[in-house]
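WARN retry 2 of 3 for item q-0093 after timeout on previous attempt; input resubmitted unchanged.
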Amino acid sequence: MLRSLLVLLIFTAVYPQAAAQNLFKVGLAKVAITPEKNIWMAGYAARNKPAEGKIHDLYAKALVIIDGNRNRLVLVTTDLLGLPRDFTEVVSREARKKFNLKREEIFFNSSHTHTGPVISGSLAGAYDLDAEQTAAINQYTDRLRDTLVTLIGKAIEDISLANLAFGRGIAPFAMNRRQMTPNGMIIGVNPEGVVDRDVPVLRIVSPDGKLRGVVFGYACHNTTLTGEFYLYSGDYAGFAQEAIEKTHPGAISLFVAGCGADINPAPRSKLELAQEHGETLAKSVDQVLNGSMTPLNGRVKSVIGEVAIPFSPPPTKEEFQARLNNQNVFQRRHAERMLKRLERDGKLISIYPYTIQVIQIGELKLIGLAGEVVSDYSLRLKRELERYVWVAGYSNDLCSYIPSARMYKEGGYEVIDSMIYYDLPGPYTPEIEEKIINKVHELVRRLKK
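OK item q-0093 returned
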């Protein structure tokens, strides 16, 4: 109780020095979140056993920013596939109780590594778990909630004056994976496909010039390590963070996953390639840090909202019943779950409450989109909005893939098949893109008021 009161006093103090110099108050913290037990790994439905150890630790990291008017922002990143909405809402409620943080002041993002543990309530249709594994995952998830709340408190306690600056680099290994074949769209390699290879970088430097922290991003699936790997790791994003922190002792690096749901690393499927991609990304970040960056001055603002995105009409009861004989075990299990819901509720859900968050740090706008968002969204929003825009996927909720409107004519995994693993009734409608983009613009306008 005393510690919480002290934290609140820190938060509510007046910082005339920060206001006078256009500095921010910044705090950083990190904690290892590697499971103590070898539990089931997230991301690949074909896995048939728990993890067998680790390549390196997984981390959760937190960044707190306070401007001269005491406006606050907390960024929490995790080396995980993603955090479902129910999870982030519980952590946010606890952070409000302990630190007086509003929901819109906390921004969650996950690296989407496919060599991290399963989190309860996420991708229920992807894993064949027994009671023992389910219990272990639930225990890990419960501990993780408490760990993230404690982590936020540690970052708050670390706050001191800092200068912030923003810049962009480029990394070459992202490759569009939607490959059209005579048999339809597959997950392959498409050198001609759309891709966003930007590397946005936020630099955090103390008034004496020492690098305290780096936030960087990339829009690419964190899947260099494929389903045959059974060792925990942060994949290329984990190796990149390691490399940055090794080059800059004492600094904390945070990775923010971009809109890369239709993008894979190329090449992939070897450990040395994950290390190589990580080093490539870290070098790009260092080039930005050592180059000309735009100082960020002004206020910290944040806003969060929802938009109802509609599903296409789901299969009928009879169609689900026919799928009970499907050779694909995931199709069968999905049909069983949908039939149980039809029996219980009389209908399936018709919309999903989709979360969007926009935060502003001086001239920089960071847009957080829930779920696995394809690259069309980041490319479009950077065209339509102001110059300093950073678009992230995998933020606040791991709900599903979020395809763009043009993909509906092509079909494929991101549009249709993935919904089985996310335990949803069927694909969204093509309206999804305009609804999300329009809501982003609405939230940006709210920030300007």
